[in-house]
Amino acid sequence: MIPARRALVCLIITTLLSLLVYYQSASAAVTVSTLRSKVPQVIGLGEYFETEEQHIQDEHSRPFTQQGDLHAPGNSPNSAAPADAPSIKPSGSKYTRNLIMAKMKKENVTWLDDVDLGPEVTKMIYMADDPKAPLHPPKNKGHEVMTYLTYIIDHYDDLADVNIFMHSHRDAWHNNELLNWDAGEMIRRLSSERVQRQGYMNMRCHWIPGCPDWIHPGQVEEDKEKLEQALIASAWAELFSDKPIPAVLAQPCCSQFALSRDRIRATPVAKYKHYREWLLRSNIRDTMTGRIFEYIWQVIFTDESVFCPNQRTCYCDGYGVCFEDEKTFDKWFELRYQKQKAQGELREWNSKAEAIEKFKADDGRWLRGAETGELQVPEIGKKEELEALIADLNEDLEKRRLEAIQRGTNPKIRAESDGRPWTDGDGF
Description:
Blueprint: H1 2-28, H2 33-36, H3 52-59, E1 97-103, H4 111-114, E2 121-127, H5 144-154, E3 162-166, H6 183-189, H7 192-198, E4 200-202, H8 229-239, E5 257-260, H9 261-265, H10 269-281, H11 286-294, H12 297-302, H13 311-319, H14 326-358, H15 382-407, H16 411-418
Parallel strand pairs: 1-2, 1-3
Antiparallel strand pairs: 3-5, 4-5
Helix pairs in contact: 5-10, 13-16, 14-15
């Protein structure tokens, strides 16, 4: 009898441990599904996995890794190192701007014709899978990387002042939230002057995913959150034979950035041809070659392994969305978190209410099973309370956002956010 009881106890313990392992595994496989259900994402362009708890913390609270964590550790600068003798024009001058996009034949980019992209924008849309298209890369491989490199190689001698490299979809989770995740708004509001000063500007302001220490090239074991990590060391040796492999590679995802003409030409065209040739002959699967470059563009254009600019500065000097200070910037995301939390509670309330309806007959009688305790009765009046709270928070968030945009019309405020001197007449 005793051995039987021991066996039963062991079986229960084993079952509990199995459930625990299953739960942890299932939790780790949850993606940013809530956000991605609203805005699409192309495979290989910044995909990552996270637990639901991390999703709430990272996507619905302050965009920094920790409170006050404004800069990456080590030698990461606040911004890209200023280009040598940047071509800043007199205040009020216009800059030529090229928009470089890669698309498949099945993808529709007519949205570009329906939005205001700002002044002096020339659209250069590459058809990745149509060799007969006016603009196309030599091979449909490496996602956007092949198109970006092909544009630089083919137009090295006739580049625009500002060259904007973007994905073809308008709405995406990896676009900037304070600009409503809208690629059109990002392009229109992008500061050409900041691009000239910095040379290289990541179009995404938010650190997560990518900063402050995302990729560890020395880790060769596969990490399901960063499948490219185990491949980077071998790729690095071929791409940058003259550079030691860094301990960390980091920058905000997801391969959307702007470059000045001077910054592109600071690297010989032969180097870009070398990178493209590697891409053409690499045996690494297509999705991963694109993701490898996602975290080495900053090496190519800034010679920095870690590039995690201040997020408030990125929004203010980069797009003219200027909060007064870090505290008010944080407050916006705190309110956003409160709204998302209330929305989650409202979904839970509605689920309970729907479950109750399943136990009611058409004539209003309770069906068998209603008395078993399976039902959770939602709190009376809670739905209206949550709906009112969400409406108030939405109004407050939009008011603060629009005030920040208005504040961004002042070039002095933008300069202060970037820590640079400004005098009357300097412009943006």
